[in-house]
Amino acid sequence: MARTGGRSLWLAVPIGLICLVVVGALGWFAAPSVPGVVGFVGDALRFGSAQSVEADPTPPPADVVTAEGFTDIDCRALYPNDLWADVVWSPDALLAQSTDDPTTAAEGLIEVLSPAVAVTCSWRSEYGTLATSLSTVGDDAVTVADAALRGQGFSCDTGEGSLTCTRMSGADIETHTIRDGVWLVTVESAWHPEDYAARIVAQVWG
Prior knowledge:
Layout: H1 9-30, H2 34-54, H3 61-66, H4 81-88, E1 94-98, H5 109-113, E2 116-124, E3 129-136, H6 141-150, E4 155-159, E5 162-169, E6 172-179, E7 182-189, H7 196-205
Antiparallel strand pairs: 1-2, 2-3, 3-7, 4-5, 5-6, 6-7
């Protein structure tokens, strides 16, 4: 077999041996530090886990919104970890965060409730769209919304100072929850993560 032109065997062999010696030497010098590195990584992981377990629980978003001196709240606070992961990792998922009025097909509801919007989260993916808004409303919001939503075909359940109304229309599911001066609206259009509205309700009110 013909040897490739331009290569010198008598140079390649010594250089190869030198490279092996250098790599071996570096490995020998690095060996004493390996246990320290492993220990450092282990300690860091244990510390991170301890911090997660021992950290004070995050207050439910409804408590934050209604607290005196309320500051900005973001979309991440509205979602439990598992639901956030489901939505974020959906194909082509894109989030737009704003303080726009809630998305709702209920005519005149925004005008009569006059919400102070804390955050509106609008998602889109290849599955469809999701819209979720958290607002504060007046003390009469349960009574006003109950009448308005029932009159537009929503099914409503009332509790002590609370209201939950839902309507399905084609591929859309719209859910309203009002409790203690806080109004949560979710609208699912063709995209329906499992128990989407109920999981956010549990996150918001704890």
